[in-house]
Specification:
The protein is mainly alpha-helical. It has helices at 2-35, 39-66, 72-75, 83-109, 131-163, 167-178, 184-204, 207-226.
């Protein structure tokens, strides 16, 4: 029973990755050409509907099918952060920052673009594209909380029943599969995030720790991109 359920759970990562692929290489370029906007704008407009909201709905369906007696908050491990949780967040943030800098440097050495396809030709948003910040304010929490909910809150606790202490490794690998459409360069840069987020979530048994780590690096990263600094 657990084996069949685990296969289903891991397939959700793959299905999510396929949705990302369809959006990145088909819907985003199509919408950008039609509306004459940067592809990053098209990504932020479409990805909630094509990728994240379907994954959230899938997560809710899974939770409903479990028929558990515990509350939704307790089941998905959205708990109040303890002092220990904050310590793990601090350690994770330090490790992710340092190692992400190294992986970013590595992509420059081997001449791989660290950006996803939709953000490789980004103009600074202050040059007539400030409206994108309004889209980002809506997109960003849907992305971060949506991924935290489905991967860390719904799927990871289920996988822990089978893979125990090795669950974070499985989650790191399949979270990478989810991002495969972003290209090899971006995957290399993401390695620290792919590892630290599920590891610390598992260590703390608190979904918020993973969300905070993901948000803390993702948010500033988008701002750097928006200011045109990533491609300098």
């Amino acid at each position: 029973m657990n084996e069949k359920r685990n296969i289903t759970d891991l397939l959700i990562f793959l299905i999510g990755g396929i949705l990302v692929f369809i959006n990145v290489y088909w819907i985003v370029p199509l919408l950008s050409d039609k509306l004459n906007i940067m592809q990053i704008g098209s990504w932020m407009i479409t990805s909630p509907f094509v990728v994240f909201i379907p994954l959230i709905i899938t997560g809710l369906y899974i939770l409903k099918s479990e028929k558990t007696k515990i509350s939704l908050i307790e089941r998905t491990r959205f708990k109040k952060l303890s002092k220990s949780d904050w310590k793990w967040v601090g350690l994770g943030l330090l490790g992710m920052t340092v190692l992400s800098g190294l992986t970013f440097y590595m992509t420059n050495i081997i001449k791989l673009d660290p950006n996803p396809p939709f953000s490789r030709q980004v103009e600074p948003w202050q040059n007539g594209h400030l409206w994108l910040f309004l889209i980002w304010i809506i997109y960003w929490p849907i992305n971060i909380i949506g991924e935290g909910f489905i991967w860390r809150g719904v799927i990871q606790p289920r996988l822990e029943n089978t893979f125990k202490q090795n669950t974070w490794i499985i989650c790191a690998l399949f979270w990478g599969v989810f991002h495969f459409s972003f290209g090899l360069g971006n995957l290399i840069v993401l390695i620290p995030t792919l590892i630290f987020v599920p590891f610390i979530t598992q260590k703390t048994k608190n979904t918020w720790t993973g969300i905070i780590l993901h948000a803390t690096l993702s948010g500033p990263g988008f701002i750097i991109l928006a200011l045109g600094l990533m491609n300098k």
